[in-house]
Structures are given as C-alpha cells and as structure tokens.
Amino acid sequence: MRTRRRRRAPVARTYTIGQLLAKQPQGLKRIPGFDAMMAHYHASQQLQRLRMNRRCYGLLANARIAPENLRAFYRTYRLPDNAFFPLFLAVKRRYLTDRERANEARHDYVLARMRALARPTLTWIKYLGHLERAYNAAGLSPVWQKHLFPTSKKRADAYTKHSEADWLSLYRDHLARLQSRYPTMKEIIVSRVYACIVLGLVPDRVPPLRPPATAVNRCYRRQSLLHHPDRGGDPAVFIAIKEARDTLIGP
C-alpha cells in the first residue's frame, strides 16, 4: 500500500533591513537624520543579518510605530534596541508628512487654476465627467480622472493657455478614449456631444438627445460671428462650427 507524502508547510517569507532600505523613495535621503540612520545600519552586523516577518516589515515601511510603543515593538518582533529604528521611523514619518503637504498644495493650486478657467470650459469638463459616469458600471470616471482633469501644476498651467482649437482637440481626443473604453457609447452620442461642445450648446441631460433646430441655429449664428476668420477667428474652428450644425440638424 502506497503511503501519501506529507506536504511541507510553506516557509513564511522574511525580509531584511537591506531590502527595506532598498524600497525607500529617493526623497528620503534629503530628510535630516538619514545619514545618521544609515551610519547605525552599516555599523551593526546584527542589523544587517536581521530577518523580519511581513507584519514587522510593513509596520516599519509605513512608519506605523509611535515612539512610545517602540519598546513593545522590539519585544513583539525580537528586534535589537538599536538607534536605527527610531531614526528610520522619524525620517520616514517626516518624508510622508512633507509629501502629504506637497500633495495638498498641488491640489489647491490645480483647483485654483481650474476655477480661473472660462465658465463654458468648466461646464464642458464637468459634463464629460457626468457622461462617463453614465456609462461606467460603478458610476465612476477613471478616464476623466486620468486624462482630462489635471493632476499636476504643469498641466493646470497649460490649460490656462489653451486656445479654442486646443480645447476642441482635447475634447475630441477625450471622447475617442471614452468610446474606446465603453463600447456601449455609440458613435451618434460621441458626434452629438462634440457638436454640442463646438456650438456651445449645453445638453440638458446625459447622454444628450438631439437639441431643437432653433437652439442649434441660434448657437450656430453666435459661434460663427465669434469665430469668423474675417474677424480674426481660427478657420479650423469656423469649419468645425459648420460641421457641428450639420451634425445636429442633419438626417
């Protein structure tokens, strides 16, 4: 009778401090205390040989240990009482705090730049977010978040310099991304939304229905006068206005 072999219990993965340090962001080197921390690590063979489990590694990597809990942390994970640990935690906490402040400052800057945009521009940016949420199963707008709403100061600054043609190109590219992401978004919807954008005719629902011809013609006359080449308008935008009217009034 054949005997079954016992399966070996999986060996729990362990980590070294060297691995922990290798995973840290470069910005950590600019934080006061980094050099002293590294000096303690290099001076201790015990630290260099030390292995820790996943839980211990995670607590250190995320700087989750408060200074008053360090003694208990040492006992729980059988770590040496070495100055490296409080220094590492202090440096990492300072880095995380500085990064959070920088992120908040960047977010506030971007919002201020966005609020300074022309109202029609903000209207269309918001509408495209609502449009995506109408097609997204979870009611989210990942394409809008990644490609349309700026997340950097550089892009927010670039938006303030966009011409009408720049915005139309941006909207057209964004609609193409949405159609690629959401196959249920039909070509007629994409064409209708873009035509409404070109004419400055904000739909009253998402996705839009075909607007009344009277509203289309009214917006067409306004936009044609505003962007007519004889009055210094962009010829490409003027052509797009004519095409938009044909899209919305055509068969």
Per-chain topology:
Elements lengths: L13 E3 H6 L11 H10 L1 H5 L1 E3 H8 L8 H8 L6 H32 L3 H17 L6 H7 L4 H7 L4 H18 L5 H13 L13 H15 L7 H15 L2
Antiparallel strand pairs: 1-2
Overall description:
This protein is mostly helical and 251 residues long. The chain has two domains: 14-109; 118-249, no CATH class. It has helices at residues 17-22, 34-43, 45-49, 54-61, 70-77, 84-115, 119-135, 142-148, 153-159, 164-181, 187-199, 213-227, 235-249, and strands at 14-16, 51-53. Strands 1-2 form a two-stranded antiparallel sheet. α7 packs antiparallel against α8 (142-148), α11 (187-199) crosses α13 (235-249) and α12 runs antiparallel to α13. The termini are far apart.
Can you give keywords for this protein?
mainly alpha, 2 domains, elongated
Provide a quick synopsis of the model:
With 251 residues, the protein is mostly helical. It has 2 domains: 14-109; 118-249, no CATH class. 64% of the residues lie in helices and 2% in strands.
Largest sheet: 2 strands, antiparallel
Rg, Å, rounded: 29 Å
Please tally the helical runs, counting DSSP H or I stretches of 4 or more residues: 13
* Beta-strand percentage range: under 5%
Ranges with pLDDT <50 over ≥5 residues? Answer: none
- The structural domain count equals 2
Strand order of the largest sheet: 1-2
Query: Which oligomeric state applies?
Result: single chain
Cα distance, first to last residue? Answer: 82 Å
Shape: elongated
Give the % helix: 55-70%
Could you report the average pLDDT, rounded to the nearest whole number?
93
How many β strands by DSSP? Answer: 2
Q: What is the H/E order?
A: EHHHEHHHHHHHHHH
The assigned structural class equals mainly alpha
